[in-house]
Design a protein that fits this description.
By secondary structure, this protein is an alpha+beta fold. It is 37% helix and 27% strand.
């Protein structure tokens, strides 16, 4: 997972967090060009964007749908007559994506958790591990082995997955 970190004013942060704003804009200036464009002139391959409420520890993370040059929407802080970098986000946050994956596992694979009328924690952890790996198949966060993710799920931390745990809040 490659995360773009952006600081927002409270107004825009709240709108994004509440699902009322689906795009964020940045001026086409050397600073943003360097952050968003690679040496070949293509947009960098960010998968997620971390929006911070000012310079605080209050943040939300969303999957990036697309980054392109376009016109901003005035009601979302853009200027309709000026080209800007447009960062489009999908409707749900990373935390929701993971919760939805877990719900899907429980709903569609419930029989796999049971062995002799009791829940198999190993089966549950293995299914969840595979679902997380699918979710982050395009990521820069590498699990050394399944034990890394298992430690996160069971113990709440692991040196290779602390960033994921922070994102889950």
């Amino acid at each position: 997972m490659k995360i773009l970190d952006l600081v927002l004013k409270k107004e825009w942060f709240d709108m994004i967090k509440n699902g009322n704003k689906r795009e964020e804009y940045r001026e086409i200036k050397p600073y943003w060009t360097k952050r968003l464009i690679d040496k070949d002139g293509n947009f960098k391959s960010f998968t997620h964007v971390k929006f911070r409420n000012g310079y605080t520890n209050n943040f939300v993370v969303f999957r990036i749908k697309n980054i392109h040059i376009g016109k901003g929407k005035e009601e979302w802080g853009g200027e309709p007559n000026t080209d800007v970098y447009v960062i489009e986000i999908v409707d749900n946050s990373l935390k929701n994506e993971i919760q939805n994956s877990l719900n899907d596992i429980i709903t569609n694979n419930l029989s796999k958790f049971y062995i002799n009328n009791s829940i198999s924690v190993d089966n549950l952890v293995n299914l969840f591990t595979e679902k997380i790996k699918e979710l982050f198949s395009d990521n820069e966060m590498h699990f050394v082995c399944n034990n890394d993710l298992n430690n996160l799920l069971i113990n709440g931390e692991d040196e290779h997955t602390k960033e994921l745990f922070k994102l889950l809040g």
